[in-house]
Amino acid sequence: MQRPEFELIDWIRGQVRDRGTVSLGIGDDAACLKPNPDRELLVATDMLMEGVHFEFSSATPQQAGRKALAVNLSDIAAMGGRATAAFVSVALPSDRGMQFARDVHTGLIELANDHDVILAGGDTNSWNGPLVINVAVLGEPWMPRPVSRKGAQPGDWLFVTGALGGSLVSGRHLNFPPRLAEAQRLVNLVEVHAMLDVSDGLAADLHHILKASRVGAILFEPDIPLTQSAKTVNDGRSPLMHGLSDGEDFELLFAVAPEAGRQLLSSWNMVTSLTRIGEISTELDCRLRRADGKMELLPPIGWTHRLGEAL
Ligand code: ADP
Ligand code: MG
Hints:
This protein is α+β, with helices and mostly antiparallel strands. The protein has 2 domains: 4-141, CATH 3.30.1330.10; 157-303, Alpha-Beta Complex (Phosphoribosyl-aminoimidazole Synthetase, Chain A, domain 2), CATH 3.90.650. It has 10 helices and 13 strands. It has helices at 4-15, 61-78, 97-114, 167-170, 172-175, 180-189, 202-213, 228-232, 239-245, 258-267; strands at residues 22-24, 31-36, 39-49, 81-93, 118-127, 132-141, 157-161, 194-197, 216-220, 252-256, 274-281, 286-289, 295-297. The strands form 2 sheets. It has a 7-stranded mixed beta sheet with strand order 8-10-7-11-9-12-13, with helices on both faces. α2 (61-78) packs parallel to α3 and α2 (61-78) packs parallel to α6 (180-189). It is globular and about 60 Å long. The chain starts with a helix and ends in a 14-residue tail after the last strand. Magnesium ion (MG) binds at residues 29, 75, 78, 196-197, 199.
């Protein structure tokens, strides 16, 4: 069953008329606008809410601000782009004072500086409620065309950067590095057919690529890279389940032709690991190939404590 959040987004998409200046609209990690024939402009926006995406029992105000920008930079990376400018709108809790507000922005601006992103505007409000922070980021694809979720082809190899799972337990969801440099290297090395950032969990997000590309996939269970915390969380769920369904990894998941995949494996020299975790198939479903060769259907299991649950 489709999550209510995505049902609503599909409905909204149905209400919007196609316009030539928007070359990629609702449904990807970022939108792509074509203000003139030889320019593509990426736009991503994401809103974080205290109590949903972070709690101040475990996060500092700086980390909350940093994360609000980082999730958007991750979406720009997922389009094969670089980020240029950010706009930040905040609803500040009125009882927390000026230093809190400065701390939120300090965390955000430090990350912006690290990636040459200019904070170019925003909106400041206060209210008798928790912190809400929305960031919109503009960017540009490195290649003439951005990498969307659509375009994976049967036979393609599926790759993921880094390792998956346990992000909430380890606190990584507050300090993950957006994979901008990795995305730049990838699109410079090979033609990436489809890509997204894993924000809702590998199994759930892979289904977005499959749906957009009208293909299926087989994931190779023993090859899925798991974080140390996915392997050691002692909560009754297996390390594999954490790797498949925990959210907030913010790693890149992408499909490339086998030849390009071989080239990547032989030439990749960044610190961030790159792992082949499966392949695209013609059958329109997603399967998990276990270590013993047995195949299982893999539903879009994923992160479920987000805002979507309130809908
Ligand atoms: P991500 O996890 O990569 O940030 P989302 O799942 O939040 O992506 O959003 C999926 C797509 O739906 C994106 O293209 C996003 O811009 C779009 N979208 C989400 N909410 C709305 C909305 N209320 N109105 C229009 N588009 C929306
Ligand atoms: Mg995304």
